[in-house]
Automatic annotation (TrEMBL):
Pfam families per record: HHH (PF00633), HhH-GPD (PF00730), NUDIX_4 (PF14815)
Keyword terms of this UniProt record: 4Fe-4S, DNA damage, DNA repair, Glycosidase, Hydrolase, Iron, Iron-sulfur, Metal-binding
Homology family: Belongs to the Nth/MutY family.
Cofactor list: [4Fe-4S] cluster
Organism: Filifactor alocis (strain ATCC 35896 / CCUG 47790 / D40 B5) (Fusobacterium alocis)
Main function: Adenine glycosylase active on G-A mispairs. MutY also corrects error-prone DNA synthesis past GO lesions which are due to the oxidatively damaged form of guanine: 7,8-dihydro-8-oxoguanine (8-oxo-dGTP).
UniProt-listed SMART domains: ENDO3c (SM00478)
Official protein name in the record: Adenine DNA glycosylase
Reactions catalysed, as given in the entry: Hydrolyzes free adenine bases from 7,8-dihydro-8-oxoguanine:adenine mismatched double-stranded DNA, leaving an apurinic site
GO MF terms, alphabetically ordered: 4 iron, 4 sulfur cluster binding; 8-oxo-7,8-dihydroguanine DNA N-glycosylase activity; adenine/guanine mispair binding; metal ion binding; oxidized purine DNA binding; purine-specific mismatch base pair DNA N-glycosylase activity
CDD domains xref list: ENDO3c (cd00056), NUDIX_DNA_Glycosylase_C-MutY (cd03431)
GO terms for biological process, alphabetical: base-excision repair; mismatch repair
Residue intervals of the HhH-GPD domain: 18-169
NCBIfam families to which the protein is assigned, alphabetical: mutY
Length: 360
């Protein structure tokens, strides 16, 4: 892992934030590109939001990236541009909780503090035969206190990382744990009592809220695609997206919706349905290409036509972008991957687009 080969405080911090709820293999490429573009805390504190979001595009949980920049700005003003070297100061920074503070403090600064993540809690629950709910703060605190008692005076960075990897590689979360390969099996209560697949205990998550959307890919005659910036609050705030309706519509309903400007529309092409799962919300989406034949400039098209569709509220910041600009400039959330792929496929096929039925 590149962040372990050169475990400077900055590198450890960036890697730990990226690794939150993301697989190691998925992080490698993002980490290398991020460090190359933003090699230090000062450059991170000054980066434009769209550049930052573009670097993060595809990793999801964009608040992680936003908090990185906020923390870098705080570090610049309050800590002289140097990442604080102890747990108590680290935990005051945006986006850094008890685990991340413990990981940075122990790995980068060798401070003898615990770094208890989901992997570590699973290992402890099985070794101790503990059926406490690990989603409860009380359980997390008790496990942190237990690990604190076990931390050696030296080599704390190796101890914490070894405990994490025991959970990631041997004491697996899904499927059968590799108990016969585990160096802790002789003292593992769960293994000796045959309950390793029943631990750790997690309370059931609340049912996700379902939201339906109709994603609209407007293309003008010059192959520019209409995108808009989401509001600076709420889900995916500050990121770019394709305009959408807040409900699902059939092809016939879509045609009816755009009847007031039908003379400006060449054709409407159905796109595949898609879904995206956030922590508490699930988007169920369908979509359409809306090919426009109007010869007016894009700015006029935007101002004079689309606002006549009352069900399609556009944000205050809209852009007609090229596909190349979508690749390099404007960060689109992974939620729209299906429709971005459809756009890429259309570019490859040109006028020979035969993926979907089309009509007006």
């Amino acid at each position: 892992m590149p962040w372990r080969e050169d475990p400077t405080p900055y590198h450890v911090w960036i890697s730990e934030i990226m690794l939150q709820q993301t697989r190691v293999e998925a992080v490698r490429e993002y980490y290398a590109r991020f460090i190359e573009t933003l090699p230090d805390i000062y450059s991170l504190s000054q980066v434009e939001d769209d550049v930052l979001h573009k670097l993060w595009e595809g990793l999801g949980y964009y608040n992680r990236a936003k908090n990185l920049k906020k923390a870098a700005q705080q570090i610049t003003t309050e800590f002289g541009g140097e990442l604080p070297n102890n747990y108590n100061k680290l935990i005051t920074l945006p986006g850094i909780g008890p685990y991340t503070a413990g990981a940075i403090a122990s790995i980068a600064f060798h401070e003898p503090v615990p770094a208890v993540d989901g992997n570590v809690m699973r290992v402890i629950a099985r070794i101790m035969g503990d059926d406490s709910d690990i989603t409860e703060n009380k359980t997390k605190q008790e496990m942190m206190e237990l690990v604190q008692q076990l931390i050696p005076v030296t080599e704390v960075h190796h101890f914490n990382q070894a405990l994490m990897e025991l959970g990631a590689i041997i004491c697996l979360p899904n499927g059968e744990p590799k108990c016969l390969e585990c160096p802790m099996s002789t003292m593992c209560i769960a293994y000796h009592t045959g309950i390793q697949n029943k631990l750790p205990v997690k309370k059931k998550k609340n049912t996700r809220k379902i939201e339906e959307k109709t994603v609209l890919l407007f293309l003008d005659e010059k192959e520019h695609i209409l995108i808009q910036k989401r509001e600076q609050k709420g889900l995916l705030h500050g990121l770019w997206e394709f305009p959408s309706l807040t409900y699902s519509v059939s092809l016939e309903e879509c045609q009816s919706l755009f009847a007031p400007i039908s003379s400006h529309i060449k054709k409407i092409v159905p796109l595949p349905s898609s879904k995206h799962i956030f922590t508490h919300i699930e988007w169920k989406m369908n979509g359409y290409f809306v090919f426009l034949n109007d010869k007016k400039p894009s700015s006029v098209l935007k101002s004079s036509l689309l606002p006549t569709i009352s069900e399609l509220p556009l944000s205050s910041e809209t852009v007609w972008a090229t596909i190349e600009e979508l690749r390099k400039v404007y960060p689109l959330p992974t939620a729209f991957k299906t429709y971005r792929n459809a756009l890429e496929e259309k570019e490859r096929q040109g006028e020979q687009l035969n993926l979907f039925d089309s009509s007006w």
